[in-house]
Amino acid sequence: MSAALELVGVTKRFGATLALDSIELSVGEREILVVLGPTGAGKTTLLRTIAGLETPDAGSVRFAGRDVTRATPSERDVALVFQNFSLYPSWTVRENLEFPLRAPGRALGDGELRARVETAAAMLRIPHLLDRAARHLSGGEMQRVAIGRAIVRRPKLFLMDEPLTNLDAKLREALRVELVELVRSLATPMVYVTHDQAEALSMGDRVAVLSHGRVLQAGDARSIYLAPKSPLVARQLGSPPINLFTAAWSDGWWRAADGVPLLETARPSATRATLGVRPEHVEPTGGPAAARVEVVEDTGPTRVLLLALGASHVHVVVPRSFVARVGEELRPRIDRERVVVWPADAPEPAGD
């Protein structure tokens, strides 16, 4: 069975800027793919290229096996939702929801139009707002209407360009749960781009990590979190951030650049590497070298410790019941089963 969406070698330039660099991605039927990357990674250009608002310089875009690289946006039948709400402020919610259904070529009867609007409003829990002017809505209500305008079209693919960014944290968390449930109930695939790792980890069936127009790694979120292909990928996910050490092996130990022992191990194939270990995979005691507690941060059920280990700094996540004070000495121990080793000469992955 063909994927709902395939990008094959998609490249896009704007003058001297390479916005997309040989992108290879696929989205299955009913799948949610989250594209994670910082500002400038190429996320919006990627969505605009899928939607047909940009034409790639090389490569192809395929929907269910059909090449749509040169097809117009209307021929692709996708719905694109941006982070700004883009509503007509003087129109009612009903009028805003009806707008995409009144486009030339739709030719829906009044009954079908009304049914689609009311179904979308019920799904988004806004039927009581249908006769209210958009300018009188809250930010969360406006974003629900913007998503509703995508739903009423019943597209083949949803494209979401950081649609929750302008909302406060509590509302963002609630709406992302609702959005996932909604898309699953509609059985429509979605590409959702974000710079927010919490959204990537919680929403996606798969995650693609994008940087400077390249897909560095794609897969399920847990695999990327626990086995990132490079330090650059590792830094994209995790809070507190992953601990990274420039290390060399000698006398049975991986040692930091200043010689502090980090991890005992048999001789590896490469004796110089970058080591990565998540803060929750470092125990605060039982390690080979002393470290000083510099910061203790309460985060609810856990505490985050920042330790000075020689010339390095180490984040450690401990239970709230663990007592630690600034200035105290601990001996952090790295979980050898969880450490990731990237040989010093290993290149950054060019794509997936």
Explain briefly what this protein structure is.
The chain has helices at 43-51, 73-76, 93-98, 110-123, 139-151, 169-186, 197-203, 221-226, 231-236; strands at 5-14, 17-27, 32-36, 58-63, 66-67, 78-81, 157-161, 190-194, 206-211, 214-219, 243-250, 253-256, 261-264, 272-277, 282-283, 291-298, 302-309, 312-319, 329-330, 333-334, 340-343. It has 352 residues and is of the alpha+beta class.
Structure in words:
By secondary structure, the chain is α+β, with helices and mostly antiparallel strands. The chain has two domains: 232 residues, Rossmann fold, CATH 3.40.50; 101 residues, OB fold (Dihydrolipoamide Acetyltransferase, E2P) (Beta Barrel), CATH 2.40.50.140. Helices cover 24% and strands 33% of the residues. The protein contains nine helices and 21 strands. It has a six-stranded mixed sheet with strand order 6-7-8-3-9-10, with helices on both faces. It has a five-stranded antiparallel sheet with strand order 13-12-11-14-21, with no helix packed on it. Strands 2-1-4-5 form a four-stranded antiparallel sheet, with helices on one face. It is elongated.
Q: What is the end-to-end distance?
A: 21 Å
| CATH homologous superfamily classification of the largest domain | P-loop containing nucleotide triphosphate hydrolases
What oligomeric state do these chains adopt?
single chain
Taking the sheet with the most strands, its summary is: 6 strands, mixed
Widest sheet: strand ordering? 6-7-8-3-9-10
Number of helices: 9
CATH architectural arrangement of the largest domain: 3-Layer(aba) Sandwich
CATH topology of the largest domain: Rossmann fold
